[in-house]
Amino acid sequence: MKKEFVAIFIAFLLASCGGSAQTRRRIAKNHYKQAATEMRIFYEKNDIHALRKSLNEIDKALELHPIPQTFGLKGTILLQLGELKESLPCFERVFNNKKVAKSKQSDARNNYATALYQLGRVDEARSIWLNIVNNPHYISPEVAYFNLGFMELNEALKVANKQDNPEKTKSTQENINAYLEQSAMYFKQAIAISKDYIDAIFFLGRTLIALNRLKEAKDCYMSILIINPNHEAAQSFLNHVEKKMATNDA
Prior knowledge:
The protein is mainly α. Among the domains are: 66 residues, no CATH class; 108 residues, Serine Threonine Protein Phosphatase 5, Tetratricopeptide repeat. Helix 5 runs antiparallel to helix 6. The radius of gyration is 25 Å and the shape is elongated. The chain starts with a helix and ends with a helix.
């Protein structure tokens, strides 16, 4: 009788533990879904409170069931909140886990590089983006190309803004132009993959303005307005470019 009791008790204990784990996973999944919902609200309404709610929900999910997918979403939330250093280990938990699909690992590396770049670790970010654009498992290489283009454009602006003397030296201008040419090349590579990639077309236009290639810049903004006739920023830049071209022709 005693042995039977012990056997029944162990069986009950194992069943209880299994049920508890299953319940924890189910509740964690609900918290994850709510976090994703709050993220959508943030993107639609730019509501920072929704982002904070999302972080709260994702922390509850991780407490119950810490899995790479949930760490990946937490990293994305922290990145949006500007908590860059805190986001890095979350992304690392994703791309260092061999059980995670390689496409998901690549997505995490892209976000990781974004955080690194914003932390001023430019060379590390560039290296990651250059690696994943050639990764056959990465399903959105145009995004990495866009990030590379945006980075090189910003680097050009940094060099330009460092100059105290408004009359820049020839070598400095050559350095700026090198960044701009590289930026334009990356934006074009993004557009070659996704021809309606409006952000890439828009910033290609800005890069071409900086290079004084106004006709090409005009074509960029006209292309955007064909895709989205209500794009106010594109219309504004188109007006600016046309005025500048008219001035040059005068």
